[in-house]
């Protein structure tokens, strides 16, 4: 039981960082514990977080979580129910309400010193369009996306694009998503292994994997090394967009079209 408790404590530590932002939430929680009179708010922002943390660390809770069939690797998601940010912001607002000058000064200084400039983040960039995703992705998806709103296509994308494709066009299926980018999850996917793992892509291995997944399109960076020219392997180069080569696989396209025609005739 102690071992399970320590594992849960480590998860809590990794989740919160036990650093400045967590400290601010803890200080705001303490302030609300002493000053907040509204029972509903006290229940939500003062009592509930403590109960959630206590249950999270309680070994029997984790055993029960796994026993009902849930993945133990996702146990940390219970902590999502604790509104750390709301606790801090509300606490600062309450301090400002009761002590204008001190609250304003304390809130400003703590936010600046303990926080970070969000626009310096690795995943933050200037918006290129209304979708807030790279124009490159929009152009690629518009090129290969199905004309019929009821249809779907399947495409292999470089790992730096897969986050955006699913946001822009849900009609484009991909054989793997961001789960392949998290090493701790240790997922296996034959297409990903052939597409991303080797320094030089073996086109025969890649086509074998993509055709088993019925991928009609293969998108590759122009800088990606391959042991054979993709066009000599039977792929059709549709277009180059911002350094990405968009290939169509006639073999898979024919198979998919035959399926669609079969089902359309069957329904007719």
UniProtKB/TrEMBL annotation:
It comes from the Bacteria. The chain crosses the membrane at residues 12-32, 44-62, 74-93, 102-119. Keywords: Membrane, Transmembrane, Transmembrane helix. This is Uncharacterized protein. It comes from Parablautia intestinalis. The lineage of its organism: Bacteria, Bacillati, Bacillota, Clostridia, Lachnospirales.
């Amino acid at each position: 039981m102690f071992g399970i408790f320590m594992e849960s404590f480590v998860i809590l530590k990794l989740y919160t960082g036990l650093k400045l932002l967590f400290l601010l939430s803890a200080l705001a929680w303490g302030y609300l514990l002493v000053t907040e009179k509204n029972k509903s708010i006290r229940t939500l922002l003062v009592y509930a977080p403590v109960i959630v943390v206590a249950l999270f660390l309680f070994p029997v809770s984790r055993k029960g979580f796994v026993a009902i069939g849930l993945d133990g690797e996702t146990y940390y998601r219970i902590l999502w129910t604790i509104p750390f940010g709301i606790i801090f912001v509300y606490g600062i607002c309450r301090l400002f309400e009761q002590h204008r000058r001190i609250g304003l000064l304390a809130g400003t200084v703590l936010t600046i010193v303990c926080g970070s400039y969000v626009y310096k983040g690795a995943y933050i960039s200037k918006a290129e369009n209304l979708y807030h995703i790279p124009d490159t992705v929009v152009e690629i998806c518009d090129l290969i996306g199905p004309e019929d709103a009821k249809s779907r296509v399947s495409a292999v994308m470089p790992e730096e694009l897969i986050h955006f494709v699913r946001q822009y066009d849900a009609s484009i299926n991909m054989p793997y998503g961001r789960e392949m980018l998290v090493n701790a999850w240790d997922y296996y996917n034959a297409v990903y292994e052939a597409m991303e793992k080797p320094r030089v892509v073996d086109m025969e291995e890649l086509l074998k994997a993509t055709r088993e997944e019925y991928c009609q399109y293969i998108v590759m960076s122009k800088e990606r090394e391959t042991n054979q020219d993709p066009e000599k392997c039977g792929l059709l180069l549709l277009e180059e967009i911002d350094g990405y080569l968009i290939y169509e696989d006639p073999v898979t396209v024919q198979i998919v079209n035959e399926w669609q025609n079969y089902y359309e005739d069957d329904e007719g």
